[in-house]
Amino acid sequence: MALPQPLDDNPCRPRHFRPPPTCAPVVGDERAAAIIELCRSRLVLAAALFALIFAVLALRLVDVVLLPGSTAETPVARARSIGLPPPLRADLLDRDGRLLATTLESPSLYADPRQILDPRAATRAITSVLPQLDPGAIYAKLTSGKSFVWIRRHLTPHQEYEINRLGVPGLQFLPEERRVYPYGDLAAQVVGFSGIDNNGLEGIERSLNKQIRDSRGPIRLSLDARVQFVLRQELQNVIDTFSAKGAAGIVMNVHTGEVIAMVSLPDFDPNHPTMTDPNLPPQEEKEEKDRTFNRITLGDYEMGSVMKIFNTAIVLNSGVATMTSEFDASHNIRVGRFTISDYHGKHRWLSVPEIFMYSSNIGSAREALAVGADAQRTYLKRFGLLSPAPIQLDAVARPRFPNPWRPVNVMTIAFGHGISVSPLNVITAGSAIVNGGILHPATLLQLPAGAEPAGRRVISAKTSDEMRQLLRLVVEYGTARFARGSGYLIGGKTGTAEKNKHGRYELKKLVSDFFAAFPINDPQYAIFTLVDEPHGTKASDGYATAGWTVVPATKRIVDRIAPILGVAPVAATPAIVAELMPKSLQGKKIEAY
Looking at the whole model, is its pTM more than 0.70? Predict the structure, then answer.
């Protein structure tokens, strides 16, 4: 059988029944070749461009998924684009790692009114889940025609779930964060609080706002939550017992300046800082709103006889007197229309220890006159009592003192009148008096282990030792006898002063305060307690002075916090106290003052 014949004689045409011969490509001319080469170059360039794009996408994916600090367009980024602050604030911890402030996810509800199909039905649905919202205000928002309106910030997980169940078109959530304070009001005056937009408004939250935002780890405060609890509880007990307007207290490490506890009452719950009782009368409502006022840092008071600590230290350190020197306290001192007298006058010459133990105003004034105005002012400035006490809080009181500094001021300042300072000023300076003479600035941040605290010498070690003896003398025989006993050696000085309002003293409105250090033979911690406008009780024989109010409270505080702080009790009383006490008065009881 014959094979079919080819259709033509072209040797390059495909054959159905035999393989084609090898043929060279047919190229028309050089122009066609250039076009083919251009197409090839474009294909290579396009392939390289796509490879680059995919490489960039891959790197971006790694950045978003694996690397910290991603700035991908997420709901959080969207929240930022409408003006919300960056997320995350560092946790605040106490010195042992207890959580004082943290941040939790708390979504916020918003609406796009243009997507709301039935504003009335949507309003009813929303208020069924959030009954605290005003239906009229919600309806006005849903009919505003805007593209974005807030409905409610910071929902709970349950509220978010219930809103989702409604299935209302146009309701959306933005991821936000809410600052939470697990201990509530325990350290409210120190920690403070943040606003709805996550900016610090009070306390450490405000003063360290940038540091809290920028920190990659938690921030440790110097506070001890256990000591804070004890201090707050005992001060509240003083308020309740003596029907006082308020109270304040601070515990400080005398060798570092670290604040272990700081309380000002009344206080507030930082989780709900603006909540007040709607049933309060106007005056009490005003006081309720003033609960953010920190008496320790922002309050300034005439401290009364507590200032004799510094007056006596000045006398001894300047060399004007020694422990055996005597001053005439036989008669009152008259200056113009003013009379300086003693509460329980001895009407005789008194030694320096007796002046301090009996809290003699006359003797203290005589000591100050011997020192002189210039030296007195120089030392008070050295102690930091003429300037705001440095600490990591914005609201700090500026001391008030006379200008010019006249002789009558020299005398009154010696026993705590005519000069107003904050409790923070007192405990910072007082710690220097008992710790060997080194003034350490107060700090609310825990010092790193092994760090050398900043400090400067303000009195000699010898003067500091003599002052410790005098402070113990006051507890053993003087106006702070209710701080004796229990094995924890306390030394301290009481003060009671009438409140000064517009230059006039209000006799029935007292501020009673007490500076103490323990153990006084080797001080580790100082305590300052203050009660504002206490009222005497039957148990106190009608007295509302420091010896009856804050001195017993301080003893209870020391008894409770000393074991927490690792301070061991001792059995013996320093022998030097008996040597300082006049033999004719040893064993006699001195009335609390």
Answer: yes
Query: What is the C-alpha to C-alpha distance for residues 314 and 327, in angstroms, rounded to an integer?
Result: 15
- Active-site residue set: 305
List pLDDT tens digits, range 275-298.
Answer: 544 444 444 444 445 788 999 999
DSSP 536: -
Give the alpha-carbon dihedral of 179, 183, 185, 188, to 10 degrees: -60
- The residue length of the chain stands at 593
For residues 87-98, give the mean pLDDT.
89
CA 416 – CA 351 distance, rounded (Å): 20
In tens, the pLDDT along 318-334 reads 999 999 899 999 999 99
Could you tell me the domains of the chain?
Answer: 79-86+93-102+179-221 (3.90.1310.10), 107-175 (3.90.1310.10), 228-585 (3.40.710.10)
DSSP assignment of 453-466, as one string?
---EE-S-HHHHHH
Helix (H) or strand (E) holding 560: helix 550-565
AA identity, residue 584: S
Q: For residue 412, give every residue at least 6 positions away whose Cβ sits within 8 Å of its Cβ, in sequence order, or none.
A: 340, 365, 418
Per-residue burial over 329-348, b if 16 or more Cβ lie within 10 Å, else e, is beeebeeeeeebebeebbee
The amino acid that residue 399 corresponds to is: P
Q: Are strands 149-152 and 246-253 parallel, antiparallel or unpaired?
A: unpaired
473 CB-near residues (< 8 Å, 6+ apart): 353, 356, 357, 577, 580, 581
